[in-house]
Design goal:
- The structure is a single chain.
- By secondary structure, the chain is α+β, with helices and mostly antiparallel strands.
- The chain starts with a helix and ends with a strand.
- Bound molecules: 2-oxoglutaric acid.
- 2-oxoglutaric acid binds next to strand 3.
- The site of 2-oxoglutaric acid (AKG) has 7 residues, from strand 3.
Length: about 270
Amino acid sequence: MHEDPMDVLRRDGYVILRSVIPVDKVGAVRRSVAATVRKYTSLPLPQGYVTGFLRLNQAIAPYLNHPRIMAVVDELFGDNARISMLTGTINGPGLQRGTVHADWPYNQDQFSCVRAPYPDVILNLVTMWMLSRFTRANGGTIVIPGSHLRNRAPRKGTDLDPNSVFEGETQIEGNPGDVAVFDARTWHSIAPNVTNEERVGVLVRYAPWWVNLGPLRPGSRDRKQIIEDRGGGDHTDPKVQPLPESVYQVLPADVQPLVYHMVVPD
Ligand SMILES: O=C(O)CCC(=O)C(=O)O
């Protein structure tokens, strides 16, 4: 029986939407994204990681307001929701398991976080756009179903050790063009890639208009006060580089309202 994706998301903390990017288009998107990640990664491969990705690569832009994605965003956040972060990733051969965490703004190791025990409200939606196959062997993201209903997340030095294997954990599996949609509270981790193939994806996060994205913006007063003055920085908290006006202007008109807040003059 077909389950409503919203019911699955509310119950498990994640849901997979199949074939969001058409099969005949996804190969070109993957090749383009992978080339940009390899060129600009801030981490050494096998973990390719490029924040503020849209300023460098717009291959995924036509899909960012896909009706099935926006139906979820709209149900959770209502009008004027927007993209909070956009990150290109490669999890390459040999990548090791990561630590189990919730995402911004629930990650308690970040300075810009909602302190646990946090309220039962979803403040950020994480979407993992699978551009290559995601399998158990090549590092399909580890997730702990139902963990979004806890009001805290694993943290070093607590009884919830981020290096633990948690009961019920499973992995995201899918085909190129599928999108895994997560509640940012859902505990998850990088999984080892024990194959010789790259796992390529783009993480796109959506938030309601009233969540303060200032701490993510390099050079902002929010980032200075909330993160840097307290000893944090790019090594602790996510950042999103701004989008040059000239790139914004070439985006599809109905995608522009999702990213207008990131735009700066060239
Ligand atoms: O790449 C993955 O599978 C997980 C990425 C992740 O945990 C994150 O970006 O917070």
